[in-house]
Amino acid sequence: MQLGLVGLGKMGFNMRERLRSAGHDVVGYDRNPDVSDSSSLADLVAKLEAPRTVWVMVPAGEATRATVAELGDLLSEGDLVIDGGNSRYTDDKVNAELLSGKGVGYLDCGVSGGVWGKDNGYGLMVGGDAELVERALPIFDALRPEGPREEGFAHAGKVGAGHYAKMVHNGIEYGLMQAYAEGYELLAAADEVTDVTAVLKAWTRGTVVRSWLLDLLVRALEDDPKLDEITGYVEDSGEGRWTVEEAINHSVPAPVISAALFARFASRQDDSPAMKAVAALRNQFGGHAVHKAGPTSGTGDVS
To answer: Please, which residues bridge with residue 109 across strands?
Structure first.
C-alpha cells in the first residue's frame, strides 16, 4: 500500500522504516531536507496515487491543525488523512468536519511504542468510521506488534476515540512511572539494601510488578547506577493534564494519576514556595526549626 507520511522525527522516521520493511511504499515529508522524500506537502501529495492516504505525525496542537488544514486544500475527494500524533481528542471532531466538507476522510490514531516501536511494533488505538479503518488496515497491521491483531490494535470507537484512549494510556503511564520511581528512591535510602539495581532486575521476572517500564528503569540504572548524569526535572507533554481534566469532567476519582502529574510539577521547583509556607507555619505554631536561606542553605543551618 502507498502512504504519505508527514513528520519524520523520532517516531515518524522509525515508522517509515518499519512500513518500508513490510513492503509498503512510503513517501515522507519533513522540513528537514536530509530525511525528507518531498520538497513540500504539495510535492508529497503530487507523488501519491489516488485515492491517497496521508499519515500526519507532527507535534500536537497548532502544528497538526495547520497541517490538516493544508492537506484539506491539497487532497481530493475520496482521500484519507490519519492523525497519528498526540492531539487532544477534542481537535479530532474539528479536523474531521473540516475534511468532510471537502470529501476527505479522517481517522485519529493514538500511537504508543516510542523509539522502540521500529523493532517491537506500535500499540495502536484508532477512532473513526469502520470503513475507513478497514481501508487502512494494511498500514495498521504493518505497524502493530506481531501476533493477534487485538493484541496491539483496537478500533476504539468514533472520531476522537483513538486519541482519548491514548490520553488515558499516558495518564496510567504517569502513575506507573511514579510508583516505580518512589520504590527506587525508598530502596536507595535504605542502608540495608546495597544493590538497588539487582533488586529491581530481580523484579523483572516472575513478580506481579514486572513490566516493560521496569525493564527500562533497570536499563537506565545499569548505564548510570545512581542516575548522576541527569537531573530530576520532568516535563509533561499534555496527556496527563488532559486525563486529570477528563477525570474531573466525568467525576471519576483518579488520585494516583493526579498525584503523579503534580509530582512532575514539583520536580521543576528549585525551592518550593508551598513547602516554604509549610516550614514557616510549623515555626509559627510550634516553634519548629527552619533552615535559613542563603550561602549555608542545605548544610544544616537551622534556627
So the answer is: 126
